[in-house]
Amino acid sequence: MHFHEKPNTYVTNVEIKVSDLHRSLKYYQDIIGFKVLQVESHKATLSADGKTALLTIVQPETVEEKTSLTTGLYHFALLLPTRRDLANIISHFRNSGVYFGASDHDVSEALYLRDPDENGIEIYTDRPESDWTWHFDQVHMVTEPLNISAILDEGDGEWQGLPTDTVMGHIHLSVSNLTAAEEFYTKGLGFDIVTRYGGQALFISTGRYHHHIGLNTWYSEGAPKLGENQVGLKTFTLRLDNETQVADMKENLHAIGATIVEIDGGFQTVDPAGNVVLLKF
User: Fold this and answer.
1) Which residue ranges does the record assign to the VOC domain (predicted)?
2) What gap in Å lies between CA 233 and CA 270, rounded to an integer?
3) What is the pLDDT of residues 88-128, one digit of tens each?
4) pTM for this model (two decimals)
5) Could you tell me which of 79, 150, 169, 211 has the fewest CB atoms within 10 Å of its CB?
């Protein structure tokens, strides 16, 4: 999991808005397998190892359901350490009667599901980096049926929640304009494009990972941004490496007209689709 270590820029935490905090807490503990770090009246912080915050769930004082397609979260993705872990969570989902989708992306094997507020979740394992196929600076990715039987053969049935080494593998965003999003994340934040998927999606990373961020307009071309009190994405956090990187990012963001707000431990900016990005050490 060196792709989720410095000097790479990678997602550390995702913050989502939900309509019922207690319902979501039960779901994320019982079904997904998180541990609770902290609970407040309208906010909970969740972890896999009991120390590191991976997911924050917030219930706005006035909750608004989404009435139309918007920009925001397509899914956040939890990266499990081993294929055995993926097998065990598949068994857990089946035993719990949880519906999930599944895909083989060549670089990874993934499960897809939605929380009670329809927030998208991916749970996946990576294939060995040595098995990935690169065509110059583009990594080969596909979407094909997942061989669940072969994965289950590696399981031991010992599901005890998310493994402690689980990380936030990536985030996938719905954006309104792919060209504007590309400029923001590549020119502004310094990510590299590693895959273009048709004309409506691209995948970006640092350190030649298959992707730390996905961007698409599949259902959101020209869509309005998510409302402040609507369920969905609130913020996501990227890890900063050093002060030189910060200075370069700020200069590049200024050059493309992005806003910058100083926060504890770093700064905040907003992409052209209204997605709030926190950058912290």
Assistant:
1) 10-126, 167-281
2) 12
3) 999 999 999 999 999 999 999 999 999 999 999 999 999 99
4) 0.98
5) 150
